[in-house]
Amino acid sequence: MKKVLMLLLAAALAFGGVCAADGYKSVPGGIRYEHIGDYNIERLNKIMSTELKEFSDSTVTFPTATNAVALYRVIYPTIVPDKNNKPVEASGLIAIPKLRQARFPVVSYQHGTVFTKTEVPSFIEQSTETRLEVARFAGQGYIVIAADYIGKGLSNEPDSYMAKNTMIQACLDMLLASKSICADLKVQQSDLFLSGWSQGSWNTMAFRNRLETLGIPVKAAATASTPTDINLMLSSYINNPNKLDVSWLVGIFALYINSYEQNYGMMGLVSAAIRPQYQQTARDFYANKIGWTEASKIFPQTVNEFLTPEFAAGSSLYSNEFFKRTEADECYRWRYVTPTRFYYGKVDEVIRPYIGATLPTEYQIMVGGASAQAIDAGANATHRNTFIFAVLDQKKWFDSLLVNK
To answer: Three-state SS string across 333-352, please?
Structure first.
């Protein structure tokens, strides 16, 4: 498999690109990209100060950027494995340091759950998390690549939210597309690192499993607020609610249930799982016809008020196809090749520390896998603050592992 991927990539790189009338430049393999702007050092520093304060109450201080960054939106071909490998297009972002050197390490960033179609990397002005990742890494000499995922960004497909194989494929094909584009820009990629937050942490873990299977080296992976065991996470929301749980967990269930119906062919799932008075709102929310502000006015405050009792009861014995599938979609139970850090927050209102850090680290100890560390993001580490701490710390760790420091 790895040889096939490399041969396809080599064939693509053997030919030059052409500019399209719409402003995109085409490179072989059906890949297109356009320059959407630059962030100068002043803007990058604003992201890591003023815009950071608007996003989070974290007291973390970021070092200043050392270089400007060029931003490119990418459209690339991929497939939907869960729909008989249906060929589709997806979009993403590449951020490249504006430096004279021609070789840079790469961070593949997988973004977290968003409740709109365009709060994603390739629409970077709408994605604060992406801007922070770009400012921290690309603003200090790393290439940052980030897939929007199938169903988000410029994709015309239904949202692939937490559909495991489809998510993996979107990330893998984004990585391959980035290599073709960087080659066209006369930029070389060196060490590959992986980073993700929340939903993106789960994507990062699943993606890393595929990369390790293909023998594609990953220098290190770091995830923040990682939902390693989906079944355990969802079951805890239903059967053991926590006073920290946020109300928008209802929105997560709306996305899960609609996505599984659409991507895994579980027809009738929405009708079986969601109480009748919320079904149409849930469908509209999943389809990005309405946002969270509008949906939250109709949705109840708690998960158990949103779900039918019969469906919720199925979480205890995996007695329906949904919960059987969530059990199969865990993303931590294999023997790692890549060293990993799992960042967790003790007051994270979405991902509980046991799921986000204890499970994967203890599992690796038991199976004798690569180094896996649980990193405490601090006493005030909410969901967002865990991410902020992780972005700061990951860069230091990744720097220490670079071949040519």
So the answer is: CCCCCCCEEEEECCCCCCCC
Q: Rounded distance, CA 266 to CA 367, Å?
A: 34
pLDDT at 71 over 70: yes
Kindly report the CATH number assigned to the domain that includes residue 323.
Answer: 1.10.260
Residue 306: band (very low, low, confident or very high) from pLDDT cuts 50, 70, 90: very high
Q: Interior CA angle at 120 toward 188 and 184, to 5°?
A: 25
Question: Which two structure tokens, joined as six digits, stand for 145?
Answer: 């690549």
Nearest CA among 247, 227, 237, 258 for reference residue 322: 258
| pTM for this model (two decimals) | 0.93
State the pLDDT at residue 7: 43
Domain that holds residue 188: 2-229+335-401
Tens-digit pLDDT profile for residues 145-164: 999 999 999 999 999 999 99
Helices 309-317 and 321-328 pack at an angle, to 10 degrees, of 40
**Cβ count near 6 (within 10 Å):** 14
Using alpha carbons, list the distances in angstroms from residue 286 to 197, 222, 279.
20, 28, 11
Q: How many CB atoms lie within 10 A of CB 334?
A: 16
Nearest to 251 by CA among 206, 314, 198: 198
Task: Please tell me the distance from the alpha carbon of residue 148 to that of residue 154, in angstroms, as a whole number.
Answer: 8
Q: What is the CATH number of the domain that holds 37?
A: 3.40.50.1820
- φ, ψ dihedrals at 342, nearest 5°: -110, 115
pLDDT, mean of residues 243-247: 92
Nearest to 337 by CA among 167, 192, 196, 176: 192
